[in-house]
Specification:
This protein is α/β, with parallel strands linked by helices and 323 residues long. It has helices spanning 3-12, 31-42, 77-90, 140-144, 173-182, 202-209, 304-322; strands spanning 21-27, 47-51, 64-65, 75-76, 94-97, 100-104, 111-115, 120-128, 133-134, 150-151, 165-169, 188-192, 214-217, 220-226, 233-238, 244-248, 251-254, 258-259, 290-292. The protein has seven helices and 19 strands. A hairpin with a 6-residue loop joins strand 6 (100-104) and strand 7. Helix 2 packs parallel to helix 3 (77-90).
């Protein structure tokens, strides 16, 4: 069947924006959710895609993605998100910007999804693609200066930090990508890591270590911050010498990991000790009719390609199991 024939058939089955009955609801519009939605739409299932944010998930906030097949020179996260969303639009996938508050009738053949806008959607199957959120330091000063010098996204308000001194907290891939991106705009960047080695991939690590704008501060933690209105300086503690020092910076970007959302829809799902949803290889959870895909799953690798794969596997098996 040609692409045009597929799209024509999908238009014939279009349920419209006002419908509340669907074959499948996908909660989360990151790469896993969009992949699942595309696969389900191509199987001619009526799909609703729900997310409290715009499509793209954390992909839309990523700087440069270099490990996605088909983009040998890399691609900006925002550009990749737009391409994914355009692909969904070609198949008429219905997207709603709503937060899911609960899933009722969880053990029944028809499940009811309740959202913050007071809508109830009746579906036969659910795929949870909730993604992750930045892990906070859980400090008082972090809350005080959030949005006033402390951020979890390097792309946020970059013009505020142009030609300024800033710090990135962390030593993994995300922290290093953020440092690499920010170094194009700032005067000086301090990469502050509690360990004595960077855990990024080799080529990225080499790039960071050779960047003249980046100074790496090892075995150190951020313990306090000061500023009258906005952030002016941060207090550091060396874990080896126990020496405390103040560092003048205008911005701090925290990249110490990602965790499952605090408001995760648990509905008696089996989760591991870190809060990730446990599934089998077919993306089935312990509750019939509910599947999980992407970074929210308990698994080894969390990357865009693996999220896309999870989404497709979940949609294919949901279709086989329920229809």
């Amino acid at each position: 069947m040609s692409l045009q024939e597929e799209l024509s058939l999908l238009k014939e089955k279009d349920v419209g924006d006002n419908s509340t009955d669907f074959d499948i609801a996908i909660i989360g519009a990151g790469p896993a959710g969009m992949s699942a939605a595309l696969c389900a739409a191509r199987a001619r299932l009526n799909v609703i895609l729900l997310d409290r944010n715009l499509p793209g998930g954390q992909t839309s906030t990523a700087y440069k993605i270099s490990n996605y097949l088909g983009f040998p020179s890399g691609v900006l996260g925002s550009d990749l998100s737009i391409k994914m969303e355009d692909h969904l639009n070609d198949y008429g996938v219905l997207y709603k910007c709503e937060s899911v508050e609960d899933i009722l009738d969880i053990s029944g053949n028809i499940k009811c999804i309740k959202t913050d806008l007071g809508n109830d959607y009746r579906v036969r199957g659910v795929i949870l693609c909730l993604g992750l959120e930045p892990k906070p330091l859980e400090t008082k000063f972090e809350k005080t200066f959030f949005g006033r010098g402390i951020s979890y996204y390097a792309q946020a308000d970059i013009e505020k930090y142009r030609d300024q001194d800033v710090a990135v907290i962390g030593g993994g891939n995300c922290a290093c990508y953020a440092a690499d991106y920010l170094s194009q705009f700032v005067n000086k960047l301090y990469l502050i890591h509690r360990s004595d080695f960077i855990k990024a991939v080799k080529n990225l690590k080499k790039k960071i270590m050779e960047n003249p704008k980046i100074d790496t501060i090892w075995n150190t933690q951020l313990v306090d911050a000061f500023g009258i209105d906005t952030l002016e300086k941060i207090k550091l503690l060396n874990g080896v010498t126990q020496q405390e020092t103040w560092l003048d910076v205008k911005g701090v970007f925290i990249y110490v990991g990602r965790i499952p959302p605090k408001d995760i829809i648990r509905v008696d799902l089996n989760i591991d000790e870190d809060g990730f949803i446990i599934t089998d290889e077919f993306m089935r959870t312990n509750i019939p009719g509910i599947y999980a895909a992407g970074d929210i799953r308990s698994k080894q690798i969390r990357q865009i390609p693996t999220a896309v794969s999870d989404g497709m596997i979940a949609a294919i098996n949901l279709d086989k199991d329920l229809f």
